[in-house]
Structure formats: structure tokens, C-alpha cells
Amino acid sequence: MDQVSLADLLPSIKESLLFQKSQILNRTNEFKRSQQESIQLSDEAEVASNDLSNNLSIHLHERSMKALLEIDKSLNKIAQGTYGECEGCGDTIGAKRLQARPLAPLCISCMEEREEEVRIKHQ
């Protein structure tokens, strides 16, 4: 049932991933432009006032780049026909999970197992 559902969902998931990718690339271009503009600032007070904003922008840019890598990884899996395979156990990730989290690399069982390992490690 999940496989059939996943096959039905795959076109919309792919479209959503491509849309997210284009949005990230647009934001990346805006980020690069804003960085160029901040370099051109000559007044020290202006530069200092932009530091906090720039730090936040850099953090958001880094998160966007990580998301872009995850999106590309999922799009490659779709192209290879391996999208929906759990990276932990190789089983099929449920269609409902992929619909909710299209970038999910793990099935629920493996995700819960990994979370438990992290919880134990941080105790």
C-alpha cells in the first residue's frame, strides 16, 4: 500500500523539492548581493551596525546550503529510483512519512533508534 501511495506521491514530492531548491538558490543570490553591498560600505558605524545582521544572514545561508544538499540528495535518489529507501535498514520509508518529511532519510524505526542513541549518549 505504501509503495503504491509513494508512487502516486512521487511527482508532487519531486515538484515540491524542485520548488524549494529554486527558492534556496534565489535566497543564495540575494545573500551574495547583500554581502557585496556590505563590503562596499565605507562608514565604520554602518559596518558595525550591519555585523549582527550579517552574522544572522550567514547562519541562515549555512542552513540553506545544508537544506540544498539534502534536497539534491533526495532528487538524485528519485532519479536513481532509490527514493524512499531507509538509509539505516534499507526498508521502505512509509509514504505518509515522506509526504510529511520529503527529506527523511530514515524510516520511523531507525529514526527512533538513532534518537535513543543520541539521548543515551547525552545523559
How would you explain this protein's 3D organization?
- This protein has 123 residues and is mainly alpha-helical.
- It has a single domain (2-121), classed as Four Helix Bundle (Hemerythrin (Met), subunit A) (Up-down Bundle), CATH 1.20.120.
- The protein is 77% helix and 0% strand.
- It is built from 4 helices and no strands.
- The protein has helices at 2-39, 44-80, 95-100, 108-121.
- The termini are far apart.
Structural class: mainly alpha
Strand content: under 5%
State the order of secondary-structure elements, H for helix, E for strand. HHHH
What would CATH call the architecture? Up-down Bundle
Uncertain residue segments: none
Instruction: Give the distance, in angstroms, between the N- and C-terminal Cα atoms.
Output: 39 Å
Summarize model confidence as the mean pLDDT: 86
Number of discrete domains: 1
What is the CATH topology classification name?
A: Four Helix Bundle (Hemerythrin (Met), subunit A)
CATH homologous superfamily grouping: DksA, coiled-coil domain
Give the overall shape, derived from the CA principal axes: flat
Q: Characterize the largest beta sheet: strand count, sense, and whether it forms a barrel.
A: none
Q: Work out the helix count.
A: 4
Total beta strands:
0
The CATH first-level class comes to Mainly Alpha
Q: Whole-number radius of gyration?
A: 20 Å
Helix content: over 70%
